[in-house]
Amino acid sequence: MPTRAAHWFRALTAPYRRSIQLKLILTMIVLSVLPVIAVTVLAAEKSRSSMETEVVETNMSNMKWTGIYISDQLDRLNHLIYSIQISPDLSDYLNEREPDNLSSQFNAQRKMLNTLANVYYSAGSHVIGIQLYLKQSQTLFTFNSMQNDIAAVGGIPPQYAEMWQANKDYSIRPSSTDPERFTLTRSIRRFEDHKQTGAISLEVLWSQFDQTLGLLGRGDQHQVLITDGDGRVMYPAQARQSPPPAGVLTALRDVKPGPGMLQTAEHYVFYNDLDVAGLKLVKIVPTSSINHSAFSTMLYGIVVGVISILVSICIAVFIAWRTARPIVQLARSVQELDMITGPVGKPSTRPDEIGLLERSLHGMAGRIRQHIQTEYRINLQKKTAELKALQAQIHPHFLQNTLQMIGSMVFSQKPEDTYEVIRSLSEMFRYVVREPQDMASLRAELDHVGHYMRIQQRRFPQRLVFQVETEEQAMDIRLPKLSLQPLLENAFQHGLDRKAGAWRMAIRVEIMKEEVCITVSDNGNGMPPDKLEKVRAKLENASEEPIWAQGSHIGLSNVASRIQMNFGVYYGVTIDSEQGVGTCVTIRIPFTSAEEGKV
């Protein structure tokens, strides 16, 4: 079975399969538009590629110089630590030979605090604290804007112990209490044996790098980070921006030292080393932002391309329309030729081959029309004569049975009942013989059927039940005369004749959109499937059967033939039957008003 996609494809392409003009227009559009689209796409891609190259080169250069500037700033912080390490006051304090002399100790400590104060005030606003730890004396000097003291500690502070345990002399650690700060620590080693004797720490604000990081041109979608050697973000804090994409920082662990770039499916990652502590400067640029920047550059080319495409489409449609116009006019002329009742029309005056073909077709159509009309009139007259002769007949068994019933009713029934049967029979004769029209209203047909069934109900008073359901809007439609009575006669003869028990027959009239369905049903014996198929096949070919049937009554194929002759092959008679259940015969005719039916 065809898929739904195939069905929709056929539905969409059906107009193009039926029209040579649409095919030509589509072909011209494709031939003219595809080169323009190809050039526009290539130009746009070239522009995007150029923009991508420019963005990569610019960011690589900026990363290089920004890394140099930040490394210089870190070097200046290191110089502050070096100035403390080479301070004579630190040497004097470490070389103090009389630890029991309190006055000497006090003076040495005061000098050490003065040294820290000088370094603190000369460092600038970004250094917010200095700490000096001396391992030998277990002394911790602290100097900041809020604190200025010396404390004795019982053991190595954790931050220094961890650094020395890792055999490091230099570290940068983010603050555990404030993400906007970091601590720069460097060990103090004895010159003679390089033994660690202490450490100096600077507490620094990350914001001192903001102006330098601004050289990278951070946008709304860009991310500029400072990370450690393990890929952890040091600055800025995640609270200030969204976390970096998963996997990007992990991939930076395996890159070579120095500036470089990584490209993923969705990002460009630029990086550069900062100092010996293993810090990295990282910039993450989404691919979409580069495409967006490239699109603003490509916009002019796209506008020009779109205008070129529209102009190409207009030219292609005009050329295809002018080329296919004569063929379409010829096709319409053929379509307008009605071989039976259509207008003759005027032949074409075109001097080219299309005009010659149209004139030849016009003359041939006229001769065919004349021949068809002659044959149609002869056939219609023949069928009308057959129908009129058939209308003059009445089923002899029905007439004989009715007359016998009237004779018996004269002696056994009331005169009114006898008169009712005689009147019904008289109305039936009057309808068959005296009505000259070939078409009758549904109301007249149902009245005629009512007389017929009234006589049958007198013959079978205890067995026959008859019902009629109609819609008032359908009562004035026109249909061939004697279309319903043959269906009832067939029901009596073939369905109910040998059935025991009650007989039920019904006529139902329904309006379904633009059609009227008249259904005649019974609860008779029905018919087997093989016989039903034969009857259906005969009804499908009813238009090829003669109206006159075998015998002296009108059969189903006669009714179907007359309906198709008057309304077309799309209408007619259908039958459904189930053995032991009953039979249902349906007449389908167009839903027209009484005035339309008389035309």
Secondary-structure blueprint:
Layout: H1 4-18, H2 20-85, H3 88-94, H4 102-123, E1 127-134, E2 139-144, E3 148-152, H5 158-165, E4 170-174, E5 181-189, E6 196-205, H6 210-213, E7 223-227, E8 233-235, H7 248-251, E9 260-263, E10 267-273, E11 280-286, H8 287-336, H9 353-391, H10 396-412, H11 415-433, E12 439-441, H12 442-459, E13 464-469, E14 478-480, H13 485-496, E15 503-512, E16 515-522, H14 529-540, H15 556-567, E17 572-578, E18 582-590, H16 594-598
Parallel strand pairs: 13-15
Antiparallel strand pairs: 1-2, 1-6, 2-3, 4-5, 5-6, 7-8, 7-11, 9-10, 10-11, 12-14, 15-16, 16-18, 17-18
Helix pairs in contact: 1-2, 2-4, 2-8, 3-4, 8-9, 10-11, 11-12
How does this structure look, described?
By secondary structure, this protein is of the alpha+beta class. It is elongated. The model is unreliable at 547-553 and 594-599 (pLDDT under 50). α2 (20-85) runs antiparallel to α4 and α2 (20-85) packs antiparallel against α8. The protein has helices at 4-18, 20-85, 88-94, 102-123, 158-165, 210-213, 248-251, 287-336, 353-391, 396-412, 415-433, 442-459, 485-496, 529-540, 556-567, 594-598, and strands spanning 127-134, 139-144, 148-152, 170-174, 181-189, 196-205, 223-227, 233-235, 260-263, 267-273, 280-286, 439-441, 464-469, 478-480, 503-512, 515-522, 572-578, 582-590. A hairpin with a 6-residue loop joins β4 (170-174) and β5 (181-189). It contains 16 helices and 18 strands. The strands form 4 sheets. Strands 3-2-1-6-5-4 form a 6-stranded antiparallel sheet, with helices on both faces. A 5-stranded antiparallel sheet has the order 8-7-11-10-9. 52% of the residues lie in helices and 19% in strands.
